[in-house]
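Board notes, transcribed. Complex of a protein with flavin-adenine dinucleotide.
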Amino acid sequence: MKDKTDCIIIGGGIGGLFSGAFLARNGKKVTVLEKNAIIGGGLQCFHRKGKIFETGMHVMGGFGENGNLHKICRYLGIYDSLDLQHIDSDCIDEIHYKKTGDVYRIASGKENFIKCMSEYFPEETGGIRAYVEDIYELTEEIPLFYLKEDNGDVRIHSEKFTWSADSLINSHVSDPRLRELLAYLNPLYGGVEGHTPAYVHALIHVLYINGATRFKGGSQQLADALKRVIENAGGNVLSNRNVTRIDVSDKMITAVHTSDGGIYKAVNYISAIHPVALLRLLPEGAFQRVFARRLNEIPDSYSAFSIYIDLKPDRFPYIDHTCYYMEDYGNMWNQDNFDPCDWPKCFMYMTPPDPGQGKFANRLLVHCIMSYELVRKWENTTVGHRGEDYENWKNENVRKILDKLQTIFPDIYDSIACIYSASPLTIRDYYNTRDGAIFGYRKDCRNLIFSQLPIHSKVRNLFLTGQNINLHGMCGVPLTAIYTAEAILGKNTIVKGINDACKDI
Ligand SMILES: Cc1cc2nc3c(=O)[nH]c(=O)nc-3n(C[C@H](O)[C@H](O)[C@H](O)COP(=O)(O)OP(=O)(O)OC[C@H]3O[C@@H](n4cnc5c(N)ncnc54)[C@H](O)[C@@H]3O)c2cc1C
C-alpha cells in the first residue's frame, strides 16, 4: 500500500504527463502509473545500435514564438530544456505525386502559404485565400486553442464548424488536384471523406500553417522534462506499473491495483488511457450502461505500418522537413481503404534531426496508413510470438515501401544499415489502444456529440484525459490536459497562469 497522494494518473503518455505536470505546477502531489518500461506513450523513443527512433511524435505545431505549446512549456518551466528544430518556413512539407511527377513544396506562415499555393494554382487564388480565412475563423471558435479563458458562455458554433472537412475545401476551390492538396495533412488526423469534421481539419492545418517543429535527438526529452516537473513537486512517475484493476465504492474510486501487486490510493484519479481499456479495469456498473455502450461503439481512427531505418553514414541526404509520397491523385481521402495487393499508395517519410545535424541523415522513418483488418488474423498473438507468416508479411510490406521510395531515392537499398518495422498490432499492444488506432476515437461530423467525451465521469473522483476525449496529437492532448487539471484545480487556473507567465512573449 503506497502513501496517499493528491492524484493518481493511469497512463504515462502525453495526456497523463501533461495533466500531472499541470497539477504539480500548482502544488499537487501526483503519482503517474505507466505500464511500459519507458514513460512517454507517443513521446517514447526506442534505441537500437546507438540510434534513437521516435515512435509517435515526429512533427508538431504550436512551438513557434506565439504558439500555444511554446507558452505551455514556458509556464511549466521546461521550454529552455527542449532541443527543438523549427522547420524552415520556405518548405515545411513536400508532396510527391509519382504518376505525374508533380512536386509541391508547402510554405508556412498565413500569407506565405496563400502565396505558395496560389503560385501552383494561380486561377484559384481567391478561393485559396477564402479557404485560409475560413479555417482560421473556425479555430477562433475554440478559445482554448488561443489559450483564452473560459468565460462560461454557451458556445454556439457556426454551421461550417460541423461540415465535413472535404465539403469545406470543395466549397472554395474547384481544381481536384488543389482540393486534395489542401487536405495533404490527412495522415496527421486520420481524415475520412464525409466524416472528418471541418473544425478538426482547420485546427490541424492552422497549427502547421503557423509553423512546424521537430525534436533534435528524439521526443523522449519532453516526457523526461514533464517527469521532472512532477518529481520536483514531490510526485512520482513510475514505469512498469500496469494498472489491472480499479476499486469503486459508492461512485468513488477507492484504490488502483497494478500487476506487480501495488495498491495506490489518492483523493482524485485521472484516466489517461483509451476509454475502452479503462472500462475493462472498472467494476461492472461503475459507469451507466448507456455511457459504457457508447464508449465501446465510437469507431476508432485508422492504424499504421511504420518502418524505422538505420542509415549507413554519409549516404542518405538529411531532409529538413516532412515528405509525403502519393501514388496518384484521388487517394487522399481513402488512405486505409486499399486493396492489400496495391498497398501502399501513400506514405509520409522523414529524416529526424540530431543535435549538430549535418547534411547526411542518420535515420529515416516511414509511416503508411494501414487498416487493422490486414492484421486481424494475428490479433490473438503477443509481441515476439506472432509467427513466421507474420514476420514474412512484415518483410514483404517493408520491401513494397522501399520499392516505392526507390523511385525517389535510387540508392535507398544501398543506404540501409538496418530496418525495424511496426504493424497495427505493435501500436495496439504498446499503447493499449483498440485496433491499433493511431489517433484514438474517430471524430465524425455526422454525429459530433457521439465522439466528444466529457472530462467528468459518474465516478465522482475520476477524470478523463488523452486523445480520445477531444483532439489528438501534440496540440490536442495537452490542451485537453488543461481542462482535466482545471476540473481539479478550478476553472481557468492554468490558462490564467500560462498567460501570466507568458505576458512578455
Ligand atoms: C505512428 C504514430 C505517429 C504519430 N505522429 C504524430 C506526430 O508526428 N505529431 C503529433 O502531434 N501526433 C502524432 N501521433 C499522435 C500522438 O502520438 C497521440 O495523439 C498521443 O500520443 C496521444 O496521447 P495520449 O496521452 O492520449 O496517449 P498515449 O501517448 O498513447 O499514452 C497512453 C499511455 O497509457 C499507457 N497505458 C495504457 N494502458 C495502461 C494501463 N493499464 N496501465 C498503465 N499504463 C497504461 C500506455 O502505455 C501509454 O504510455 C502519432 C501517433 C502514432 C501512433
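Residues 10-16, 33-36, 41-42, 56-60, 242-243, 272-273, 277, 304, 306, 367, 427, 431-432, 438-439, 466-467, 472-474, 477 surround flavin-adenine dinucleotide (CB under 6 Å). The chain has three domains: 5-57+217-298+442-501, 109-210, 302-436.
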